[in-house]
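Query structure, 99 tokens:
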């Protein structure tokens, strides 16, 4: 999606935050993605600070303000393995980017 948006003229940055309980999966994640992966640590516990869960999406505007929070268990399908989920997430991102 990052490359697709770039091809459409949109500069978008993606970031994955890996849970402390998923440290053993970090190497696999790095093989699957070409964008930043941050490893959460018990002394930081960013997942608790953000109030998020696995597969949630936080969409920020260019000033760093949170504009959209999409919970994986919410009413909006954000499963990137499905065309609907993929298109939903892309639509929310484009709405935040504006015209």
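Result returned for the query:
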């Amino acid at each position: 999606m990052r490359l697709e948006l770039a091809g459409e003229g949109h500069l978008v940055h993606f970031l994955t935050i890996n849970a402390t309980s998923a440290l053993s999966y970090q190497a696999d994640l790095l093989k699957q993605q070409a964008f930043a992966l941050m490893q959460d640590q018990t002394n930081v516990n960013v997942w608790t600070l953000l109030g998020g869960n696995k597969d949630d999406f936080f969409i920020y505007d260019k000033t760093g303000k949170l504009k959209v929070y999409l919970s994986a268990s919410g009413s909006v399908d954000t499963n990137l393995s499905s065309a609907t989920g993929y298109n939903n997430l892309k639509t929310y991102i484009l709405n935040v980017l504006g015209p």
